[in-house]
Structure formats: C-alpha cells, structure tokens
Amino acid sequence: MTALLDIRGLKAEIDGRQILNGLDLTVNRGEIHAIMGPNGAGKSTLSYVLSGKPGYEITGGEVSFNGEDLLAMDPDERAAKGLFLAFQYPLEIPGVATLTFLRTALNAQRKKRGEEELSSPDVLKRVRELAKQLSIDPEMLKRPLNVGFSGGEKKRNETLQMALLEPKLCVLDETDSGLDIDALRIVADGVNRLRAADRGMIVITHYQRLLDYIVPDVVHVLSAGRIVKTGGKELALELEATGYAQYQSEAA
Amino acid sequence: MNAEIRPVKTAAEIGFADLFAAARESLPGGGNVKAVRCDAFDRFAAQGLPHSRVEAWKYTDLRRMVRDAKPLAPRPDTAAKAATRKAAAGFAGLDFRRLLIVDGAFVPELSDLADLEPGVSIRATADALGLDDAPLWLEAGMAGDDPAAALNTAFAADGVIIAVDPNVVVARPIHLAFVTTADTPSAMFTRSSLALGAGAAITLVETHEGPDQSDYQVNAALRMNVGERARLDHVKVTSEGSAAMHIATLLAEIGANATYREFGFTTGGAVVRNQLFLKLAGEGTIANVHQASLLAGRQHADTTLTVDHAAPGSQSREVFKAVVDDEARAVFQGRITVQPGAQQTDARMMARALLLSDEAVANCKPELEIFADDVQCGHGTTTGALDDQLKFYLMARGIPEKEAEALLIQAFVGEVIDALARDDLREALTQTMLNWLRGRD
Ligand SMILES: Nc1ncnc2c1ncn2[C@@H]1O[C@H](COP(=O)(O)OP(=O)(O)OP(=O)(O)O)[C@@H](O)[C@H]1O
Ligand SMILES: [Mg+2]
User: Are B207 and B80 contained in the same domain?
Assistant: First the structure.
C-alpha cells in the first residue's frame, strides 16, 4: 500500500530565498509524526508548501499524497482530498460568520468528492457537538471568523475545523502555542479523538509537553530546510535537554 | 474683461436645444411651468454638459460621454405596459405598494393604489404640473446650477408625488418601480417627490431597470422633505440595462430630530451618476447614507454626495463601498459641510473600494468643509485588491477560488447591506449581490 504522504527531495524557495533544501518525509496511515526544530528552520514553510500557499516556488523534489501528485493540485483540491493545515497564525476574516465559513467549507469539500451536501441544520448540529467538546462558546460561531478571538480561541477554532472536516492528513503547526494549560489539554483531547487507523498527522511543535498529550510515533528534527534527525518519542525529551545546537552546525 | 471662454457646443448640446424647442409646447404644465422650464434650460445651456474641469463632475465627463440627445420616450402603449410584467422581479415576493413608472410615465392602472392608508396621497407628476403651485414645486431648490438637475426641470414630464400627513406611520413600504421598455434610443425625464409630515414614517424603495443593449438615458430627480421627528428609509437600486445612462438627482431636506436612512445599490447601467444633496436643516437630525456599487465590464458609476449640516447637534454617517471588476470605474465624491453654528455636529464618512482586476479603477474623494469649532468629523478611504492571504485560508479549507472570492466580496459588501433595517430588503439585496457574483464566472 502506498504511503499517505511521501515527500522526496523537496526544495522550495520564496522571493528567491531557498528555504526547503531537499526534504524527505514519509507518513503512513495511523501514524503521528512530530516535527521539531529551531525558529526559521522551515517548518511552517513545509506546511504551506504542502497546502499549496501561493508564492512558493518548488525547485525540486516531489510530494505524493495517497499516491497522487499533491503539488499539481490547487489548495482547495488538496483540502477536498483530505489535507488539513491548522495554521500557526489563523487569519481573521471580517464579515464572514464562522458558521457560514464552516458550512461553506464542508459542503465545498463534499461537493468536490461527489458526496451529498449537508443541510444547514445538520451542519449546525455537528458543529455544536464539536464546539461543546472543545469548550467553544456557541455564541462565537456567530461572530466573524476569528475576528477578536483570543490566541487560544483561534487555535481551538482551528481544531474544530479539523474535527468537522475529518481530513486524512492533519498538519498542526504549533497548535499548542498560545494555549493555556487547560486549553492545551482540551485541544490535545480533540486531536487524539481524531487518531484513526486511516489518518496520519504531522504535529509541529517547540514543546515536549504537547507530546505528552499527543504521543507521536516518530519525531523528526527539521533544520535549515531538511530533516536532519529522526527518532522515536524519546528524541523529543533529548532535544529538550540538548537544544538544537548540534543539528544547526551539522546542517550548515 | 470677461475672460470666460464658451466652448463650441457639442452635437449633444445642440441636440438638447433642438429637443427642448420641439418639446416645450407639449410638455405638461401651463404657462408658468413653461417659464420655469425655459429658465432651467437656459441655466443648462449657459454651462453646457458638465465636463472634467467642473469639480462636481470631475470623473464623469458628460461632454465626452453623452454623444447625442435622444428623442423623448413616447408614453407607453399597450405593448410597453405588457413588457413590464416581470419588472422588479427581485422585489416581486414582497408585499410593497408598487407604483409602476414605465418609460418615464406613471401608469396608475398597473400600480397598486388600492386601500391607500389614511393620510397618504399619491398622484402623477404629469397631473400635478397643471396645478397652480406646480412652478414652485418644480423649481424648489433643484440643486442650484447643477446642469443635470436643470435638464430635469426643463424636460420632466411625469413621475410620482407622494405626501404623508403628520404622525402617519406607513407600515407598508412604497416601491417606485421605474422600468424602461424602449429598445430604440430614447430619453426619460422623471420628477418625483415625497413630503413626509412631522412625526410620519415610511420606507420608500426605488428601483430602476431596463433592457440590456438598449441605448436609453434616464434622468430621474427625487425631492424629499422630511418633517421634524419623521423617519424615512429610502432604498434605491440602480440596475439599468447594459447600455443605459442613468443620471439621478436626489435632494433631501431633513427636519429637526428626524431620522433619514439612505441606502443605494448599483449594479446596472453603462454610465450611472447618483448625485445626492442632503441638508440636515434641523437640530438633532440623524442621516445615514450607505451605498454599494458592484461594477464589471466597462461600467462607470459615480456617486456624488453632499451632506450639509446646517443646524446644531446633527449626526451623519456615510459609508460607500465599491467592488470593481474588469475595466469598470467607481467614483465616490463626498463632501460634508458643517455650517457656522452647527455645533456638536458628528459626521463620519468612509469610502472603500475593492478592485478585482488590474484595469479596474476607483476614484474616491471625500472632503470636509467645516465652519464650526465644536464638531467631530472624520473621513477615510481605502482602495485595494482582495487579500490573497485570506483567500488562501479559505481555499485551504476546500473552498474553490471563485467561491472564496465571492465570500470575501460578500463580506466586503455585507457591511452596507447590514445597514438595511428590514429583513426582507436585506434578503432581496443579498440576492441581488449573489446574482452579481454568479455573473462573474
Ligand atoms: N517571503 C519571504 N521571503 C524571504 N524569506 C522568507 C519569507 N517568508 C519566510 N521566510 C524565511 O523562511 C525561513 C523559514 O520560515 P518558517 O516560517 O518556515 O520557519 P519555522 O521553522 O516555521 O519557524 P518558527 O519555529 O519560528 O515558526 C525563515 O528564515 C523566514 O524568515
Ligand atoms: Mg513556524
């Protein structure tokens, strides 16, 4: 069976600056991969390139998602095929009610997959359940998307979107940052509920603590645009103690 | 020495003079009315069509845009009346009192005049022009020397005159549905008015439409007198045919402690000029103006607004939004004037344009003219493209590009539509917006 995600020798640049330098990564169904690494290493860049953000030029390598050429797809197509990125910095969209946004996204994906669209009440019901699980005030769903939400509320909202859209591959870019201790647990529980045999996850984080809640199968160190070290969950503990100094010099 | 240079008259200006000479005997009204018309035409002729060096018309150069004077539209015949059956479809389901103006002529037999509320009167302008007070009514304050308003006074043949007695609250909105049926070049000049007594209230909806490709010109003028403590909601939807020129003048005089909410929505017409002259004449008056234009192709839509705070303690808010695609152009000129003594004026004006193509243009020119010292006034403008980051965020959730753009455009226009007090109107205008968005792909 093909891997869920297979990245080979990926090179990408933005504004003429090379950020990803031949990155290899394979994620199988059912696996959780953690990616750690110093600031500016290219972790968010990887997540953006995977989700198809404009502005990046792919200068080498390939990415297959469920055996298909991911890089040839538009961002919406990637999402409909089951790729989800929880943004490190979720955006505020004034004038678009959160619920409208959720319904539009869910039905756009279903439509593209040839599934029947859900009625507004059905979507509302599903969203309400998830909001409850994630301790999101239902009143917030009426507000414009992320506008005036606190940092933690935005991250919870990302988690809600992920749970609603039920992707095949979840990429969480520092979903733990900005969360208080209780919220961290709530969000981690939400993510763990999504663990499934046919679903893979990439969890980008700086903190070992998240990995106490969301226990990874594999931990990678990303430095200077490449995966420079791969290990088990104990690698995260090691990094906590040693920092990235050795990997940075290695990459340079 | 008088150095004023009289430019050579354009073909259109000569055409208007010929048209007036031919029509003035047959236009409705007695000798006094004719005198008013002749004066007005002289005012027009002295200036000619406005052009880009006339400040108020800076971006809408009629000398260039008006090539000829079109023949006056004949009063609608049976076929024309029949052609209006589907008029104002977007408002068809609403229980408004619909008054139909076809090719510039008020058609009572197609209008809903049944069970008129006590204290409300409706009559045809053509009839009223025969009455003794007609000259005064026709002349009253028509925007000074404005050439478009002067032309309207010269040629106005029909329209609707509505009066609401003091303290009469009219629950059912009145809908003036202006429909052009002509498929040959033609011009329509209408004059309408609404007098709202002290403490009265009404919603007046005005829609303008006509066939695509038809080469017609509409010059519509509407005068409002809003009495003390009265409440008026005026909603104007301009969705003329694709080749039409639409020039509208709105004059409103608003009394003390009255509330006036003006809402404008423009999607149709090759050239549209909506000029609004609001005078907040009494103390404690509130006036809000919300306007949106959705333009594509080579459309040109100009909103020129003056808000005159003439008494203390009045408040006004002006929000103008334009969505401009292709090679279209949106113009907003807004001037807030605070007269000496109009202390505690609170006025804010905002103009925002969203450009959807590299060739799209927006000209925004807000101005403040303040002659009092204890006031709060401000204005701002922004012009920009759709935010790519926001678009990506939506697309990353599976929303296709066009739909993502549509959501962002809706969000942009939404602020204006949300200003409508009535749910049914909000829904109707939202639908109009969605139809426009659907037309994009
Ligand atoms: N538009 C751009 N032009 C040039 N360089 C850019 C641009 N955008 C990002 N970069 C650079 O790319 C590098 C990688 O950034 P990225 O956001 O992927 O890092 P990261 O690993 O996610 O860091 P962090 O841990 O701080 O989130 C950084 O050095 C950043 O400055
Ligand atoms: Mg990052």
Answer: yes
State the distance from the centre of ligand 1 to the C-alpha of A39, rounded, in angstroms.
Answer: 8
Say if B325 falls within a structural domain.
no
C-alpha triplet A194, A195, A196: angle, nearest 5°: 105
Distance CA A223, CA A40 (A): 8
Ligand 1 pocket check for A249: Cβ under 6 Å: no
Residue B301 within any structural domain of the chain: no
| Cα–Cα distance measured from residue A154 to residue A145, given in angstroms and rounded to the nearest whole number | 9
Q: Determine if ligand 1 sits within 6 Å of the CB of residue A18.
A: no
Spatial separation of the C-alpha atoms in residues B260 and B233, rounded to whole Å: 6
Length of chain B: 441
In a domain, B273, yes or no: yes
In Å, how far is A95's CA from the nearest CA of chain B? 4
Digits of tens for pLDDT over chain B (441 positions)?
444 555 668 999 999 999 999 999 999 998 899 999 999 999 999 999 999 999 999 999 999 999 999 999 999 999 888 888 888 888 888 999 999 999 999 999 999 999 999 999 999 999 999 888 888 888 887 778 899 999 999 999 999 999 999 999 999 999 999 999 988 999 999 999 999 999 999 999 999 999 999 999 999 999 999 999 999 999 999 999 999 999 999 999 999 999 999 999 999 999 999 999 999 999 999 999 999 999 999 999 999 999 999 999 999 999 999 999 999 999 999 999 999 999 999 999 999 999 999 999 999 999 999 999 999 999 999 999 999 999 999 999 999 999 999 999 999 999 899 999 999 999 999 999 999 999 887
Q: How far is the CA of A74 from the centre of ligand 2 (A)?
A: 22
ipTM reported for the complex, 2 dp: 0.96
What is the CA angle A112-A118-A120, rounded to 5? 130
Question: Domain ends where: B258, B282, B306?
Answer: B282
Ligand 1 centre and the CA of A55: distance in Å?
Answer: 13
Residues 6+ away with beta carbon under 8 Å from B428: B90, B91, B94
Query: Is there a single domain that holds both residue B91 and residue B224?
Result: yes
B393 touches chain A (CB under 8 A): yes
- Domain limits for position B105: 11-282
Binding-site residues on chain A for chain B (CB distance < 8 A): 51-54, 74-76, 78-80, 85, 87, 90-91, 93-96, 100-101, 104-106, 108-109, 112, 144, 161, 165
Looking at domain A5-251, its CATH superfamily turns out to be P-loop containing nucleotide triphosphate hydrolases (3.40.50.300)
Domain ranges of chain A: 5-251
